[in-house]
Specification:
Layout (H helix, E strand, L loop, with lengths): L7 H21 L3 H26 L3 H31 L13
Length: 104
């Protein structure tokens, strides 16, 4: 039982849909945690596009870029969660619109 290879158009369409979901989540949500998760979704869609392109052309460059994207996402999450914890402890909010209170 062999499966047919997935075309590059299908991979790019899926990556575009996932990236759009992440972008809409960043633009619509107000909670900092949801915005952070939406950014992760957008980064994963970008990684999927790189993997699909590298598979199509038979080059390992897309896989290397995906590893760099994963590293960037891990660093972004660790820094952002630290900031979110400090904001929540000090102001007891996670709403972006209420962040005007943080101005000194």
């Amino acid at each position: 039982m062999t499966s047919a290879p997935v075309s590059m158009d299908e991979v790019m369409l899926l990556a575009g849909v996932i990236f759009t979901i992440g972008l809409v989540g960043v633009m619509v949500r107000r909670n900092i945690l949801y915005i952070l998760m939406s950014l992760e979704i957008a980064l994963n869609a970008t990684g999927l596009a790189f993997i699909g392109a590298s598979s199509h052309w038979g080059q390992p460059d897309g896989q290397i870029m995906f590893l760099l994207i994963l590293t960037l996402a891990a660093a972004e999450v660790s820094v952002a969660l630290g900031l979110i914890l400090q904001i929540h402890r000090k102001y007891n909010i996670l709403d972006i619109d209420q962040s005007k209170l943080m101005r000194g």
